[in-house]
Amino acid sequence: MAQRDGLSAILIAKNASKTISETLASLDFCDAIIVLDSGSQDDTVAIARAFGAKVVETDWLGYGIQKQRALSFVETTWALSIDCDEVVSQALKDEILLTLKHPCHNVYRMPRLNHLCRRPVRCAGWYPDYVDRLLRVGEAQFSDSLVHESLVFACSSGSFSSPLLHYSYDDLDSAIDKLNRYSSLAAMSLKSRGRRVGRLTPPLRMCYRFFHAYVLRGGCFGGLDGFSASLLQAVEVYFKYCKAIRDA
To answer: How far apart are CA 100 and CA 107, in angstroms?
Structure first.
């Protein structure tokens, strides 16, 4: 339970030394920073402590459970959930601080601006990619999803207009690595829910996802980056269902 006024940032981390410094630097407006680390073998823990973060070292049980664990260590009224490849823009920082002076809601969402090779992509469903991240402690909790977790709440919610910067893919190698990890976790999630997957599901889902991102969500207007963002989404869906068939 929250014990004092203020705002805590919560992060879950593993081998995030390449990106976490920029993330932590953008959280200088928070009263506390809590990093839940799951066995990092690089400098993640040392970097987090250098920024004054409280580091809790634990095992890994999935994105949703880890974020809920991190939330349990918050001792302030408000919590801000941030990933280790995200940066709070100055405009968003100002908007959060202004809102918390006289909050009208208990949960706030923000538009996330995803980047590909450090270039912002404003099409293919990558912007505005709204995510619920700011919450009054005790009014919401994270789902127990292995991947693509979400906040679960029944209280009132509001929206910010300034972007959360998401440097999801610094290069193509990291894009492929992340695609592989996320599709594996998503396949495990399907299996845990007892979802049956037919042989035609992977190509059909892939084609629909590409059409949805490239045509319906305007990826076709984004040049090569728009095409790449659409293709990454489609390929992740394809391998998610292929892996679900393989593991059935």
So the answer is: 11
